């Protein structure tokens, strides 16, 4: 079956630190992969996505590369800001496109 | 801008009461979903619908029911609310697509439900 496992939080970083949030997946076929961000009091927003192996998704300084050989889609940012404080969810859309599968979320707090 | 809206945004109710949460979308998407979010558990799928005549149970449908009144409207009901249904509920939409396009889901702002 399909599933997503992501790094447990919470994560606390100082401003300008490097961020990595690990995400690995199990899937049949060739899923599409996503990172969503949830700011306090809001719904989930798409941060970036990748639809095939070796694709790199990027947005707002965040990047993630679809690695089929390691079944991973790790989120990275070179220099975090206080405004990046949020909960981050890794997700996949299965090969059939019928359902989405979410990780448990990783809470990030960036301190000045 | 096209949007996914949820009403109410907050609701406090008592055990045994019937509650309806509503979701509307102006994106023209055919697929709609209901999730609940609990701390440490992420998002869990309650029900999903691929069109007005197609309703499917998710992983945690017990105690919930849904109605797809129109392509743009998808309601979630708790027939007899219980305290462990206290959670944040999200509606989401997406389009039918081939795997190559990888269309994502779009989420509403959420409804915070408290059952006393």
Characterise this structure.
The complex is a heterodimer of chains A (112) and B (116). Chain A has 112 residues and is mainly β. Chain A contains no helices and twelve strands. Chain A has strands spanning 3-6, 11-14, 19-21, 23-26, 32-38, 44-50, 56-59, 62-65, 75-77, 86-93, 100-102, 106-111. The N and C termini of chain A lie far apart (42 Å). With 116 residues, chain B is mostly beta strands. In chain B, the strands form two sheets. In chain B, strands 2, 4, 5, 6, 9, 10 and 11 form a seven-stranded mixed β-sheet that branches. In chain B, a hairpin with a 2-residue loop joins strand 5 and strand 6 (54-57). Classes of the chains: A mainly beta (112), B mainly beta (116). The interface between A and B is medium-sized, with 27 and 27 residues.
- Strand composition percent of chain B: over 45%
Total strand segments of chain B: 11
- Sketch the major β-sheet of chain A: 6 strands, mixed
Q: Give the radius of gyration of chain B.
A: 14 Å
Termini separation of chain B: 36 Å
Mean pLDDT of chain A: 93
Structural class of chain A: mainly beta
Number of helices of chain B: 0
Residue share in helix of chain A: under 10%
Beta-strand residue fraction of chain A = over 45%
């Amino acid at each position: 079956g399909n599933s997503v496992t992501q790094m447990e939080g919470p994560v606390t970083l100082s401003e300008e630190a490097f961020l990595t949030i690990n995400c690995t997946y199990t899937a049949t076929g060739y899923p599409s992969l996503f990172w969503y961000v949830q700011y306090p009091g809001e719904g989930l927003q798409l941060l970036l996505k990748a639809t095939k192996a070796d694709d790199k998704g990027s947005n707002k300084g965040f990047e993630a590369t679809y690695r089929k050989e390691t079944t991973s889609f790790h989120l990275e940012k070179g220099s975090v800001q206080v405004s990046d404080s949020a909960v981050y969810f890794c997700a996949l859309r299965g090969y059939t496109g019928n359902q989405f599968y979410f990780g448990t979320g990783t809470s990030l707090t960036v301190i000045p | 801008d096209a949007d996914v809206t949820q009403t109410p945004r907050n609701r406090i109710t008592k055990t045994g009461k019937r509650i309806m949460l509503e979701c509307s979308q102006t994106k023209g998407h055919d697929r709609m979903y209901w999730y609940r979010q609990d701390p440490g558990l992420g998002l869990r799928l309650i029900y999903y619908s691929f069109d007005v005549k197609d309703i499917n149970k998710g992983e945690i449908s017990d105690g919930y029911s849904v109605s797809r009144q129109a392509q743009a409207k998808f309601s979630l009901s708790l027939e007899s609310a219980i305290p462990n249904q206290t959670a944040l509920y999200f509606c989401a939409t997406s389009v039918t697509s081939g795997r190559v396009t990888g269309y994502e889901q779009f989420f509403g702002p959420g409804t915070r439900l408290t059952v006393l």
